[in-house]
Amino acid sequence: MVSTAPPRVLTVAGSDSGGGAGIQADLKAMLALGVHGMSVITAVTAQNSLGVQGYWELPAEAVRAQFRSVVDDIGVQAVKTGMLASIELVETVSELLADVDAPVVVDPVGVSKHGDALLAAEAVATVRERLLPVATLATPNLHEVTQLTGITVTEEREMRAAADALLALGPRWVLIKGGHLAGEAADLLVGPDGTEHWYRAARYDNRHTHGTGCTLASSIAAELAKGREMPEAVAAAKEYITGAIRAGFALGAGIGPVDHAWRWR
Fold first, then answer.
1. According to the CATH classification, is domain 8-140+212-248 in 3.40.47.10?
2. What is the pLDDT of residues 117-157, one digit of tens each?
């Protein structure tokens, strides 16, 4: 008896050797949400709970070959991007995504949880000009909002202006993540018709939050691949990441990861 394949989601991102973020977090979240995860590795990091000790980009031809190998044979029902590191890799991935007939969730990764740069400063303009216009959804945190638009958000009422500025760069939808603000963990989704969708959750006193952004973006991609509309996909992903943050655990001497398997424990 041959089983029917689950929805297929491709992550295009860097590898986290500590297993908490990047490709590893994406694939764990995809498994937890019932889709088949596949990967295009853009960079390899030496990384643990204390930070990123170094990273090495893969050649553009290796990224292109991985992408074509998966998409041309297996196909995808959603794509998520994370760490792209350099101008050349941002350009390469943007070009590849332009021909994909599936939702594309762009997590415009700029720095790690520990503050380590994961995107060359000179590549920020390329993300704005090439990558965001091919995104179905962009999911910046507040640091990335500033990096991409110059807008600094210090309170919740400023998030709408940030969303509008991001939408002007080309993505169809934008999710502004307010996790670094005080109070509730509030995120704002704005789409083509300008309607605001707010997602709120309790803020848990848990420092072990490594991989939050990667996990949320890949969770949204998983829900889109399963056929949910964008507002419902974000709601389901928000519920999943909130549980994963609540269950985050200590690992090593620094910041531990969110728990991708929290529903099974």
1. no
2. 777 788 899 999 999 999 999 999 999 999 999 999 999 99
Is there a catalytic annotation at residue 242?
no
| Residue tagged active-site, from 177, 191, 238, 243 | 177
Report which of 129, 145, 127 is spatially closest to residue 187, judged by C-alpha positions: 145
Please indicate whether residue 4 is annotated as part of the active site: no
User: φ and ψ at 109, to 5 degrees?
Assistant: -60, 125
Catalytic one of 211, 243, 248, 256: 211
Active site residue 211: yes
Of 11, 212, 215, 242, the active-site residue reads 212
Q: What is the DSSP string of 178-208?
A: -TTSSSSEEEEEE-TT--EEEEEEPPP----
Domain boundaries, the chain: 8-140+212-248
pLDDT of residue 92: 98
Tell whether the model's pLDDT for residue 260 goes beyond 80.
yes
What would the pLDDT profile of 144-200 be if each residue is shown by its tens digit? 999 999 999 999 999 999 999 999 999 999 999 998 788 888 999 999 999 999 999
